[in-house]
Write a structure and sequence with these properties.
Helix content: under 10%
Structural class: mainly beta
Distance between the termini: 28 Å
Order of helices and strands: EEEEE
Oligomer: single chain
Strand order of the largest sheet: 1-2-3-4-5
Number of strands: 5
Strand content: over 45%
Shape: elongated
Radius of gyration: 17 Å
Length: 87
């Protein structure tokens, strides 16, 4: 989902949900095999905030559930902040 002009003209809020892979075959090619039957899925939220015409700040947050397709793995939370310079 995208939310253009969220809070300021030119800003963009994004919320995404993805299931990156669920291996049913070919598990001999993966270090973790096919996990323990869990399905990995991810939730991401990011916000593009233009400070001015040439500078933007982009904070993001990710939550990865059942990493590597293991139900027994804890949820991983990742946050970062990027700065974008345009010339």
């Amino acid at each position: 989902l995208g939310f253009p002009d969220l809070g300021k003209k030119g800003a963009l809020g994004v919320l995404s949900f993805v299931v990156p892979h669920q291996y049913l075959s070919g598990r001999q090619f993966l270090l973790s095999g096919n996990g323990d039957g869990g399905t990995q899925y991810e939730l991401e939220a990011s916000y593009f905030y233009p400070v001015n015409r040439n500078l933007a700040i982009v904070p993001s947050f990710y939550a990865i559930f059942n990493p590597n397709n293991f139900d027994s793995n804890p949820t991983v939370f990742v946050g970062n902040v990027r700065t974008q310079f345009s010339f």
